[in-house]
Design goal:
There is one protein chain. The chain has 146 residues and is an alpha+beta fold. The chain has a single domain, classed as Roll (Sulfate adenylyltransferase), CATH 3.10.400. It contains five helices and five strands, in the order αβαβαββααβ. The protein has helices spanning 3-13, 31-39, 50-55, 95-100, 106-123; strands at residues 22-25, 45-49, 66-70, 76-89, 133-144. A five-stranded mixed beta sheet has the order 1-3-4-5-2. A hairpin with a 5-residue loop joins strand 3 and strand 4. It is globular. It starts with a helix and ends with a strand. Pfam families: ASCH. Residues 25-143 form the ASCH domain.
């Protein structure tokens, strides 16, 4: 976590002791756009490849975890908290979750995620599969700089 994100986290909690379970990062390959969708309430879910968590040696998120959302300049713009986590194959994600991701329709969500995960998996020498496991998270906005 960078210094700006850490300062935002501490500022948000003020005199209270902040929870330990916090991470910071950007959303996907359009971090400013996706952060904006979180802030305006359109994006209330996100997902990432289960295998990618393992490869990147990052702990799989759990209910109650917080995230500091960063823009493309790695500046903190919002804080979210995870309210639900499910691990499921990409081809079993339902339309309600896809729409909660902010992509407008299931078809659009599928196209975007197939492209994104094909590229991410290629970077680590793996191939995209329609039944790849996703860590699907429902999130709520806690605070924003907007």
């Amino acid at each position: 976590m960078n210094e700006a994100a850490w300062n935002y986290w501490l500022e948000y909690w003020g005199e209270e002791q902040p929870p330990d379970s916090v991470s910071a990062g950007q959303f996907g390959d359009e971090p400013d756009y996706l952060a904006g969708l979180v802030i305006n309430g359109t994006k209330t879910a996100t997902c990432y490849g289960y295998q990618l968590y393992e490869i990147e040696k990052v702990q799989i998120p759990t209910v109650g975890d917080y995230s500091i959302i960063l823009n493309k300049k790695d500046e903190p713009v919002a804080i979210t908290q995870i309210t639900k986590v499910e691990i499921k194959p990409l081809n079993e994600v339902d339309e309600a979750f896809a729409i909660a991701e902010g992509d407008g329709s299931y078809e659009n969500w599928y196209t975007i995620h197939k492209r994104y995960f094909t590229e991410k998996l290629r970077e680590v020498g793996m191939q995209y599969k329609e039944d790849m496991l996703l860590v699907c998270q429902t999130i709520k906005l806690i605070d924003s700089h907007a």
